[in-house]
Amino acid sequence: MGERAAVVWDESFLGYDLGGDHPLNPVRLDLTMRLATELGVLDGVEPVTPQQAADEDIERVHDPSYLAAVQAAPYSGWDVGHGLGTADNPVFDRMHEASALVVGGSLAAAERIASGAADRAINIGGGLHHAMASHAAGFCVYNDCSVAIAWLLANGFDRIAYLDVDVHHGDGVQASFYGDPRVLTISVHQHPMTLWPGTGYPRELGTGGAEGTSVNLALPPGTKDAGWLRAFSAVVPATLAAFRPQILVTQCGADTHREDPLADLSLTVDGHRAIYKRLRDLAETYAGGKWLALGGGGYSLFRVVPRSWTHLLATVLDRDLDPDTTVPAGWMAHTARIAPHTTLPTSLSDGGDTAFDPWDGTAETQLDNAILSTRRAVFPLIGLDPDDPRD
């Protein structure tokens, strides 16, 4: 495999810690890397060590005044503005340094691909897709996804597709490039009428010559593996084919899972595995094999995220794992010590059924209506027939 894929990782990523009982607990990263290591997914892989991103790189998408506020926040008390010091985004020690390191990790992944050192690269510590130009939001201080894309635009790429499969709308990345026709943003998420941040309607299409480069597929609560994959397949491949990206950047939040405490979709780890394989196939088919994979949300810290993202790492590395693989005893023992009241899964499968019937052009269900709403909003702008399932 050689340098086919690069993994960006360092334990210093665990310093992005919002503290206390905050849902975004870095233990999920540690447990993922432990599980992937014990299963041999990372055998022979020398991780790329991230460096803290320079201010000028972060300022590709963030206002300098916001950086100054983040840097000063730990010394300024709690009421510092810019979305900092809230329940979602509490101020924590070395907040700028930890956040800049996350950005640096995603930049390192982007640089490996841009330099030709790897076709694929992954930073599970990244995916902080809600941060806006001048404020923190949704557990995200700096938007590493947007910074990496902006860096790629400045380093030889002019057609970048960003695909977000987190349960929450990828609002920060959409906002960064809403008027930029060089960047296609696609977000597949729970319907904004039922989940924060309340954006991501099909009518959000882009502006200023970029109409049709913002694509939002909003799914009804309760959507399961088969429905999610049906909707995805009815919208995403045709959109990518029309856009012809040079690279695919994906945010791979695991909070679509049925056990996630912060949302209401009903996917399984098996569904996640199927999604990651589709992302890999799409990168091969439409982006010359260039794939930058980032982490994201996921708040079932012990039962879901480590298994889901172990499948993600395995997929990026072409070391796909059998869903029925047994969770190693060493990982179980370690996790039981830190989560003694949690019943831990014993395999990498939830027994989910990922088979689905392709969309046939009808709108008989709430899910089919969601598919048609997105297709009718976007497809005419990119030269496709929204009512023809062959497009």
TrEMBL record:
Q: In which pathway does it act?
A: Ketone degradation; acetoin degradation
Keywords per UniProt? Acetoin catabolism
Q: Which family does it belong to?
A: Belongs to the histone deacetylase family.
Pfam families in the record: Hist_deacetyl
Translocase: present as a keyword of the record? no
Name of the featured protein: Acetoin utilization protein AcuC
CDD domains with a match to the protein in the record: HDAC_AcuC_like
The domain of life is Bacteria
Give every Histone deacetylase domain span.
Answer: 22-315
